[in-house]
Specification:
globular, 25 strands, disordered N terminus, alpha/beta, DNA-binding, single chain
Length: about 650
DNA sequence: GTATAGTCACTTTG
DNA sequence: CCAAAGTGACTATA
């Protein structure tokens, strides 16, 4: 127990279909092998069972070639409006100028880093994007059933890894554009860039099957910030349209089948009551003002929804909500599966005909992500009126953190987290500080690309403009006491402390756990893992007394996964700077600790460990900093890969 | 300064 | 091959 044993390498994601895969093989494998064959767990749709709930007589016009306008008495009244709007749209379409596409002879760009096309003085695009490997989506409808625990973890890791690549590419594209100093003639749109690059490299998930129902590795409540992100994981395949469906010509029975919808509030005739949605079909809108200007037709996604209702096929529902903390100002929440109970043709608020669908949420699903978001919002402002019972403390940190850390227990009478000394940051032995803090920078108004502190970090910033970790490194040097930059400097993030309202809560499964009342964006700082640091010698004395310690060198090296673009860039080099020896200290969290030691263990975690230096220069004693590996929804439990078997965690020893 | 409306450049699918 | 789906960044205006 006193010796420091290395933890196993958990960083490879072997393909379960090949039993002999090694970590090296997995990394070298072509991207197309990332999606394992799903055959054994799939239910084919060759034999649909029609007549699920509703007879078709509630549909006025099931013929897709038959204009619904003839079904409306009001048609004559609106025909003149229709004619005018049609003229308008034709005129508008002609204004669009054709942009020449790269010719089919263009070779793959030898420099894949040049993902941002740069127009030169003559406004010619100097860099040709890589040639497209266009792989159209399959039309084979399947359900994924009865995933075992191993498969669930595998797919979760796959989805997480894919989203990490998407996010770092997105940030990368925007950072690169900024670094190039391009005129702001066009919007940055790293969201689109990232998706295109990944598509060209075959990294989009679930394109070989059209999945009905849940997507493996995507949980109810999962959060996304961009429409393209939904396409990349295969949750919703339309970059703009709100209804995703298999077309009639590709469907086995010649009928279109809808599989997912997005409720974004873009249609005035939508009514969203959570479990029940009156969803308006698409179409009939004015392009510039998004107002209804024509009757909708029973075709495309609208017909797909009607057919899905007919066959009792459930649809995934994703809600788009305004959210100020999101990079796009919006957040897309996966809210689970719904069934379509009715559909009918109605006159909408603007007086034009619209198709409406009554969607009802299926039973036995986790709570809706969108209602959890709302609950968390009210908990942030008035916790005691939302949850009158259960809050033991409204701040166990006693003002030592920037934001309060709550303590919640509605299960038993344990109040243990009240009875220790809360420390917001780690306590090092005094000798750690003897070497001072090294040289500092002179960047009075904040660090720049070529400053001393950037070069300490291998010539690149560890964080983006918003304090998001760009990629994991063996060690990050933040600006310190000898730097002249302000606290708001881009290179000071983890030292500025906690920004989310955390809650230590009692759990039947894990004893204590930690969750946040705020949405935590992937890559953002969570908190430090704080305790009293003991040297190896001190630790040996300590454990002879039978007390237990936390050994930080056992935490899995999850930072290597964050920002790893080796699947994108053939010349990608993993960060190896600086080279540091394995951590050789232990941490005593028995008397002084912070919120971190209540975080549970998971082999498929949502929090990673990143080592950081800022207040001294001793490479042997870095701060253990925690960052989000995913967009973590409010009230979802945080978890770290402690790197060893489940029964061992510092947390469990101390806090049960 | 802060909401809101308008404009522009996008990409994928069917 | 093109029409249709709407977003997200940015800019102008109230």
């Amino acid at each position: 127990m006193g010796s420091l044993i290395p933890f196993p390498d958990l960083n490879s994601f072997p393909d379960p279909t090949t039993t002999t895969t090694t970590a090296t093989d997995a990394a070298a494998a072509a991207p197309t092998t990332l999606i394992p064959k799903l055959e054994p767990k799939l239910e084919p749709f060759d034999d649909p069972h029609p007549g699920f709930t509703q007879p078709l007589n509630s549909i006025p016009n099931p013929n897709p070639n038959h204009s619904p306008q003839t079904q409306l008495d009001e048609t004559n009244v609106y025909s003149e409006f229709n004619r005018i709007s049609e003229l308008f749209r034709t005129a508008f379409a002609k204004q669009n100028v054709d942009v020449p596409n790269p010719s089919a002879d263009d070779v793959v760009d030898p420099n894949p880093l040049a993902i941002v096309a740069v127009p030169d003085q003559n406004n010619q695009v100097a860099v040709v994007p890589p040639k497209r490997r266009h792989q159209p989506r399959s039309s084979e409808l399947v359900r994924v059933l009865d995933l075992g625990l191993d498969d669930q973890r595998y797919f979760r890791d796959l989805v997480r890894k894919t989203r990490m690549i998407y996010d770092s590419l997105r940030v990368f594209a925007e950072e690169k554009r900024r670094a190039l100093g391009l005129e702001r003639r066009t919007a940055a749109r790293g969201d689109l860039k990232a998706a295109t690059v990944m598509r060209d490299r075959g990294l989009w998930l679930n394109r070989d099957k059209r999945i009905v129902g849940s997507i493996p590795g995507v949980y109810v409540g999962d959060l996304f910030f961009f429409r393209m992100e939904l396409c990349v994981v295969g949750l919703h395949g339309q970059s703009q349209a709100g209804i995703d469906y298999v077309t009639a010509s590709h469907s086995s029975n010649g009928e279109p089948i809808a599989t997912s919808v997005i409720v974004s509030g873009g249609y005035e005739d939508d009514e969203d009551a959570g479990d029940v949605i009156i969803y308006t079909g698409h179409g009939g809108q004015d392009k510039t003002h998004s107002r209804q200007c024509a009757h909708q037709k029973l075709e495309g996604g609208n017909l797909g929804l009607e057919r899905s209702m007919h066959y009792g096929i459930e649809v995934r529902v994703i809600r788009g909500m305004r959210y100020a903390g999101s990079p796009s100002g919006k957040v897309y929440v996966y809210d689970g599966l719904y069934r379509i109970f009715y559909s009918w043709f109605d006159v909408g608020k603007s007086g034009f005909g619209v198709y409406k669908f009554k969607l009802v949420r299926m039973e036995n699903q986790p709570e809706m992500g969108s209602s959890v978001l709302r609950l968390a919002k009210s908990l942030r402002t008035e916790p005691l009126s939302v949850r009158p019972v259960g809050y033991v403390s409204l701040d166990i940190s006693m003002n030592k953190e920037n934001v309060p850390v709550l303590l919640y227990n509605d299960i038993d009478s344990e109040h243990d987290p009240m009875y220790f000394e809360y420390i917001a940051t780690v306590v090092f032995p005094p000798h750690v500080y003897q070497g001072g803090n090294g040289n500092g920078c002179d960047c009075i108004s904040g660090c720049t690309d070529d400053c001393l502190c950037t070069s300490k970090n291998g010539g690149e910033f560890a964080y983006d403009q918003n304090g998001i970790l760009i990629r994991g490194k063996p060690l990050i040097f933040e600006c310190g006491t000898n730097c002249r930059c302000p606290p708001s400097c881009r290179n000071r993030v983890s030292q500025n402390g906690v920004r989310n309202r955390f809650e230590v809560f009692r759990s039947r499964e894990t004893g204590w756990g930690v969750r946040s009342l705020d949405l935590i964006q992937a890559g953002s700082f969570i908190c430090e893992y704080a305790g009293v640091v003991l040297t190896r010698e001190q630790a040996q004395l300590f454990t002879m007394n039978g007390d237990s310690l936390v050994y930080p060198n056992r935490f899995a090296d999850r930072w290597t996964e964050w920002g790893d673009l080796s699947q994108i860039f053939s010349d990608y080099v993993r960060p190896e700077h600086p080279s540091i020896p394995p951590l050789d200290f232990a941490m005593d969290v028995s008397r002084m600790r912070n919120v971190a030691c209540y975080i549970s263990h998971s082999s498929s975690p949502n929090v990673l460990v990143q080592l950081v230096l800022y207040d001294h220069n001793n490479l042997l004693f870095p701060h253990i900093m925690l960052f989000a590996m995913e967009n973590i929804p409010p009230l979802r439990e945080l978890s770290i890969d402690y790197g060893v078997a489940d029964e061992w965690t510092g947390k469990l020893r101390i806090c049960n």
